[in-house]
Amino acid sequence: MRLNGVDDRLERHQYPTTSEELIAAHGNATVELADGSERLGDVLERFGEQTFDDAEDVFTTLRAGVCHRGIGRRFYSDRDPTTDAEDGPSPVSF
Predict the structure, then answer these.
(1) Is the peptide bond before 89 cis (omega within 30 degrees of 0)?
(2) d(Cα 13, Cα 10) in Å, to the nearest integer?
(3) N vs C: which end of the chain shows fewer Cβ within 10 Å?
(4) Helices (H), ranges, 18-89
(5) CA-to-CA distance for 33 and 67, rounded, in angstroms?
(6) Rounded to two decimals, what is the model's pTM?
(7) What stretch of H or E contains 87?
(8) What distance in Å separates the CA atoms of residue 11 and residue 17, rounded to the nearest whole number?
(9) Contact 13, 44 (CB under 8 A)
(10) Mapping DSSP to helix (H, G, I), strand (E, B) and coil, where does residue 85 land?
(11) What stretch of H or E contains 40?
(12) Cα Rg for the chain, rounded, in angstroms?
């Protein structure tokens, strides 16, 4: 996720603030995702009314709230266990 300058705007915003105030001030700003973009207001609206103490609280909410286009390949994991028919990695004891 790229914030396209939204991070600077959010850091300059006065805190504490509510999601409603952030949406009014910055809601039309877009964040760039792995597959497209999304409005800041749309992401914050998913969480309902919240109060943010600082910009880092907002960044955490944005990372948690972007739509599925922000996560790259959906349902992909390189940590899936091997099946019984496959030879998986040998266990290592630390």
Answers:
(1) no
(2) 5
(3) C
(4) 19-26, 40-45, 55-65
(5) 9
(6) 0.66
(7) none
(8) 12
(9) no
(10) coil
(11) helix 40-45
(12) 18
| Cα–Cα nearest to 53, from 13, 23, 20 | 13
Burial pattern 31-61, b for ≥16 Cβ within 10 A else e, equals bebeeeebebbbbbeeeeeeebeebebbbeb
- Identify how many contiguous H helices and E strands the chain contains and give both numbers: 4, 4
- CB atoms closer than 10 angstroms to residue 68: 11
Lookup: tokens for 43: 């992401």
Residue 35 tokens, joined:
């597959």
Using one digit for the tens of pLDDT, what is the confidence trace for 2-56?
667 788 899 999 999 999 999 999 999 988 877 778 888 988 998 899 999 999 9
Neighbours of 17 (CB within 10 A): 19
Copy the structure tokens of residue 3: 């914030």
